[in-house]
Design goal:
It is built from five helices and seven strands, in the order αβαβαβββαββα. With 131 residues, the protein is α/β, with parallel strands linked by helices. The strands form two sheets. It has a five-stranded parallel β-sheet, sandwiched between helices. Strands 4-5 form a two-stranded antiparallel ribbon. β1 (14-18), α2 and β2 form a beta-alpha-beta unit. α1 (4-10) packs across α5. It is globular. The protein starts with a helix and ends with a helix.
Length: 131
């Protein structure tokens, strides 16, 4: 269940969702919309993710599947980090697949607990200074 703090942290925020499993992407989108967030995406291809990343719009946080159609999400993650946009990873793999560069990024293993995901992302937003 969402707390009022989570709802406050996510309300009006634009959350970028990159996930290639359609039903999971849809569930993530519904979860964040229910908390008052706007969704950028969801997208299931790196090319589409790059288009959103470069469209000039504000992104407040992101949920990134580590492996998108057999391509690693790291170029997107690097650009988000350079922009100081908080994000978390989802994956069916172990944290070791992240390598040392992203060991500090929260990783949620599939199947995803959507309430836990919302709590984690709200915490990341709260911990980041406003851009």
């Amino acid at each position: 269940m969402a707390t009022s703090h989570q709802r406050a942290e996510l309300k009006g925020r634009r959350i970028f969702v990159v996930e290639d499993e359609y039903f999971l992407a849809d569930d993530i989108g519904k979860t964040f919309r229910a908390l008052g967030a706007e969704i950028a995406g969801p997208v299931g291809h790196l090319e589409d993710a790059l288009k959103i990343l470069h469209d000039g719009s504000v992104l407040d946080a992101a949920v990134l599947d580590v492996n998108i159609r057999s391509e690693m999400i790291f170029p997107i993650a690097r650009e988000l980090r350079a922009r100081n946009v908080p994000f978390l990873f989802t994956t069916g793999y172990d944290k070791i697949t992240l390598g040392p560069e992203f060991q500090d990024v929260p990783l949620l293993e599939k199947p995803i607990d959507l309430a836990a995901m919302a709590r984690k992302l709200a915490g990341l937003i709260a911990a980041h200074p406003v851009q």
